[in-house]
Amino acid sequence: MRMTLTREEEKAFFLLMGISGQGVNPGDEVSLKKAFRTKAKKAHPDLAVGLGIDPRIMQQRFQELNDAFNILMERLQKEPLPYTVCKKTPSKPDEPDRSVRAKNREAYKENISQKKSGRVKSDFTEKKKGTKDSGDFFYSGKTPARNLRFAEYLYYSGTISWTDLVQALVWQYRNRPKIGEMASETGLLVFEEILEILKEKKFGELFGEVAVRLGYLNRTNLTSLVREQKKLGLPIGHYFLSSHKMTQNILYKKLSENRRHNILFSDRSDS
Questions:
Q1: Is 118 left (phi over 0), alpha (psi -120 to 50) or beta?
Q2: Interval 20-75: pLDDT, tens
Q3: Where are the alpha helices (DSSP H) in 79-130?
Q4: Which of 27, 49, 154, 229 has a CA between 20 and 30 Å from the CA of residue 106?
């Protein structure tokens, strides 16, 4: 059963959960607390100097998040127990940072010791190119003679499979900031306009394109938001570290190889 919210509570819920919270029950206390912690860390006034943002703006954002969280928590206290679903401790698959760093350090030390003793072991599991033994596919042709994005280079060099490539791109897409949330934070859209855009959005249509079609944003606004979205998105290398598909040592090695590849073909195109 989904909890019904007042207009004030709807605005508070959107501020915490954003567009991605459409399928979340407002009574899910675990999700609300997780979203608040994540956004509060990014909006803390102590980060203002490092981000080059006016501390007063950061303070305002932080206060708005606190107010929104308190509004929803007060509502939950008044609701019957079925709405609060935080009785069991949730698993945290999105927070493997400490264990990942520890494993990366151990793998790096092992690799260094093996190199010193003349026994070099690859940090990435070796798989045959072009095989489908595990139901997956590894590219076995020549690496394309053009500039390649990092994930493309990993696939075309036979380092990752087709499935790995798709999963990495999906992960990057899901972890980038949403256009609607960015437009709301910069004052380009208000809460009611975002709801109207979501209401009019057709299947497969991008949020930004709907906003332009309805006249809530112009093309310049959208271009600026998309450019900023790309800047704020997580590098795709984070996926391979957090999913334990690659160690930090091999990641740096592949990044270096990708840069050399792109420099080579950039020089050819300029000549």
A1: left
A2: 555 566 777 888 888 888 887 777 777 766 666 677 777 777 888 888 888 888 88
A3: 97-116
A4: 154
CA angle, 176 then 181 then 183, to 5°: 110
CA atoms 41, 46, 47, 53: torsion sign: positive
Using CB atoms within 10 Å of the CB of residue 195, give its burial: 0 to 12 exposed, 13 to 18 middle, 19+ buried. Answer: middle
Kind and range of the H or E run holding 188: none
Mean pLDDT of 148-161: 91
Greatest CA separation found in the chain?
Answer: 72
The identity of residue 17, as a single letter, is M
Residues 79-92 have pLDDT tens digits of 654 444 444 444 44
| 3-state secondary structure at position 221 | helix
Tell me the domain boundaries of the chain: 7-83, 97-173+235-270, 177-232
CB 138 within 8 A of CB 158: yes
Number of Cβ within 10 Å of residue 134's Cβ equals 10
Computed from CA positions of residues 150, 155, 157, 160, in that sequence, does the dihedral angle turn out positive or negative?
Answer: positive
Alpha helix segments (H runs only) across the chain: 7-17, 29-43, 48-51, 55-78, 97-116, 150-156, 162-175, 179-185, 191-200, 207-213, 219-232, 237-242, 248-270
Q: Enter the pTM of the model.
A: 0.48
Query: How many C-beta atoms lie closer than 10 Å to residue 52's C-beta?
Result: 6
Instruction: Name which of 18-27, 113-122, 158-167, 261-270 the model is least confident about.
Output: 113-122
